[in-house]
Backbone:
């Protein structure tokens, strides 16, 4: 569990080991359990579907389905790492979706700003995240409440702006990108991996990344160590908001349609994936790689259940069991004095 | 001191806004209690309600409960408290059991009302003299019609997959029952897989992607609503099978009608939301004004299925002219013109 201690004990030996082995151990740091879990899930479904689930076509399908959840998961996990919570996911995504829908070529408005919609949406998502962070740090309100409020505010704005219309996207380029692939690899997963790469490097290679874990590990200590905790938190919430917007555009692009329900039912699956990936909901443990594996496991699980024709009544129950099991394994009980 | 001042100012502002709103009031309050304005169906419903209210000089009050039965009941009670008997209601109950407290509250206040869709079978409209009618659309007939049209488009043979709505939801169950009835009469069709996409477009897209892997030879998709049909259709388009693998849905969403026109969807069913919005209020107002005498109405006119609009490639052009390009014209005084069958 204790990543730092483990890293410290393996560090001296690492220098004498071959490069491939060192790379492998670097990549799997803190995600061994998830890799095993993913392998088990794939194995069970491979047997259950007589191989269909591990066919090339289905692996492509899993990757294309995992892209957007992975991006949302990557967005949420950083807030979780600093020991906070972000419930505004669905509202922010819906708001960015509806606004984008009206700005890309559509039957309702005269706007057609093409790919300029990407910075505009990111601005909207980032602003919502910025406000989340400011409410959390300046008004000193628990992130749970601040972001819950933001969820309703942004969802409400999305309804006011969208008026319940499903807005068809007439600019075909977006859909071609979102549903397209590069040499068989779906574009959405490539974008997700791009987001992952940036966050991964920031977390493991920069001072800012270390601050995240210091704050998530023990905020009081971090403050005493002179870290500008509030500023780091505001930045994290803002980046999270920006990534939501990216997911939002892909969601709209994939179906070539936006409406105020675009973000609906996305937060809890993403939160499940974050927990399943091994990011501790008590903060300070787990990183971008965990989010990636979490999203892959949950997607593979849901895809496999459809292929195996598991009763839809049972599918949610299975997800729930996996969530409880994952949290049971990853939660740091020492940090929570009283379990409420 | 400063805080108190701010508080007093805030309360004063709130009061002035409320009174400014209240002063506009004259005529009958026409309450429409629906789920939300987020979905096009209820948005059109609200337009129908507004249109009727405007036509008779009433005051349309649209109340959205956002999925909360509690809020729906409280909103209705609030309007009764304000308007007294000078009100009528048209209600889409959030959940079946919620009908009971709503009906009791309106009955106690002597306010006439009409409900749609959700009602427990054991609750009898005839036990409440102010409950003018409970109106629904037969999900079974719709589901069967959709199935039949899908099978017809496949030449009566092949594999289909089905996407159910929210499990345990009455409408979802009825429509699926309809599909099963259609399947019984079509020996050449096999149901290869069933799952739920919870009425949701994104979920349908994702389920369909997995379906296509497991059933590459699928010939058609039966989806319990248009949203799911459209989500499935996007997955079919992405696989380059649009037009070959047809979808059917229900609700008559604009994009689905376009898909029927383009030959990518075989059928949909329009539940005329505009008509529901207007007719619910019209019936309640007619009872309030004594134009219909609720006490002497036959039982089957108190709880009935109304006519839905069936859309196929055969009538698509006239449907587009009436429902997409134009607003359908209804005679709000033709109270039972859309009557189909009693709800037993």
Residues:
């Amino acid at each position: 569990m204790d990543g730092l201690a483990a890293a410290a004990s393996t560090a001296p030996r690492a220098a004498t080991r071959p490069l491939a082995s060192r790379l492998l151990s670097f990549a799997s740091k803190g995600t061994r359990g998830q890799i095993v879990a993913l392998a088990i899930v794939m194995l069970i479904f491979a047997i259950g579907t007589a191989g269909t689930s591990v066919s090339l076509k289905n692996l492509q399908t899993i990757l294309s389905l995992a892209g957007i959840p992975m991006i949302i998961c990557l967005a949420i996990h950083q807030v979780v790492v600093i020991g906070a919570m972000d419930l505004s996911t669905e509202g922010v995504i819906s708001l960015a979706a509806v606004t984008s829908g009206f700005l890309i070529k559509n039957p309702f408005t005269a706007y057609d700003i093409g790919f300029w919609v990407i910075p505009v949406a990111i601005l909207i998502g980032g602003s919502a995240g910025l406000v989340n962070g400011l409410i959390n740090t300046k008004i000193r309100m628990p992130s749970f409440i601040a972001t819950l409020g933001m969820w309703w505010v942004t969802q409400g704005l999305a309804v006011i702006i969208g008026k319940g219309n499903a807005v068809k996207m007439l600019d075909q380029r977006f859909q071609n990108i979102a549903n397209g692939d590069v040499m068989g690899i779906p574009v959405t997963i490539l974008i997700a991996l791009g987001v992952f790469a940036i966050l991964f490097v920031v977390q493991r290679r920069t001072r800012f990344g270390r601050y995240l874990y210091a704050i998530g590990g023990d905020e009081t200590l971090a403050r005493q160590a002179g870290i500008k905790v509030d500023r780091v938190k505001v930045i994290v919430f803002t980046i999270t908001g920006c990534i939501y917007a990216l997911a939002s555009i892909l969601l709209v692009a994939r179906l070539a349609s936006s409406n105020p329900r675009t973000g609906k039912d996305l937060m809890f699956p993403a939160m499940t994936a974050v927990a399943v990936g091994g990011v501790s909901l008590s903060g300070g443990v787990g990183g971008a790689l965990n989010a990636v594996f979490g999203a892959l496991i949950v997607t593979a699980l849901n895809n496999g259940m459809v292929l195996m024709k598991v009763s839809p009544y049972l599918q949610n129950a299975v997800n729930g069991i996996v969530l409880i099991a994952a949290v049971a394994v990853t939660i740091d009980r020492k940090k929570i004095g009283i379990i409420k | 001191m400063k805080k108190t001042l701010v508080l007093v100012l805030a309360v004063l502002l709130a009061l002035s806004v409320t009174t400014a709103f209240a002063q506009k009031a004259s005529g009958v309050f026409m309450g429409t209690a629906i789920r939300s304005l987020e979905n096009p169906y209820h948005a059109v419903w609200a337009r129908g309600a507004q249109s009727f209210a405007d036509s008779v000089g009433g005051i349309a009050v649209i109340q959205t409960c956002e999925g909360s039965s509690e809020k729906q009941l409280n909103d209705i009670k609030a309007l009764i408290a304000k308007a007294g008997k000078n009100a009528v209601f048209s209600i889409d109950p959030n959940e079946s059991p919620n009908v009971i407290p709503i009906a009791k509250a309106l009955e106690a206040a002597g306010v006439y009302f009409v409900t749609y869709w959700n009602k427990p079978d054991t609750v009898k409209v005839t036990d409440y003299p102010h409950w003018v009618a409970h109106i629904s659309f037969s999900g079974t007939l719709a589901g069967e019609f959709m199935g039949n049209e899908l099978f017809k488009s496949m030449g009566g043979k092949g594999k289909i997959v089905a996407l159910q709505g929210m499990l345990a939801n009455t409408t979802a169950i009825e429509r699926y029952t309809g599909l099963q009835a259609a399947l019984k009469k079509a020996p050449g069709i096999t149901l290869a897989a069933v799952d739920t996409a919870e009425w949701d477009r994104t979920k349908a897209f994702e389920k369909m992607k997995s379906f296509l892997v497991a059933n590459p030879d699928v010939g058609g998709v039966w989806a319990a609503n248009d949203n799911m049909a459209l989500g499935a259709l996007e997955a079919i388009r992405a696989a380059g099978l649009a037009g070959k693998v047809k979808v059917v849905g229900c609700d008559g969403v604009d994009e689905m009608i376009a898909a029927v026109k383009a030959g990518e969807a075989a059928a949909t069913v329009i539940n005329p939301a505009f008509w529901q919005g207007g007719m619910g209020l019209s019936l309640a107002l007619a009872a309030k004004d004594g134009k219909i005498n609720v006490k002497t109405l036959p039982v089957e006119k108190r709880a009935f299925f109304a006519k839905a609009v069936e859309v196929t490639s055969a009538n698509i052009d006239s449907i587009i002219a009436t429902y997409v390009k134009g607003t359908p014209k209804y005679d709000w005084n033709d109270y039972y013109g859309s009557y189909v069958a009693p709800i037993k």
Observations:
- Confidence is low (pLDDT under 50) at residues 1-14 of chain A.
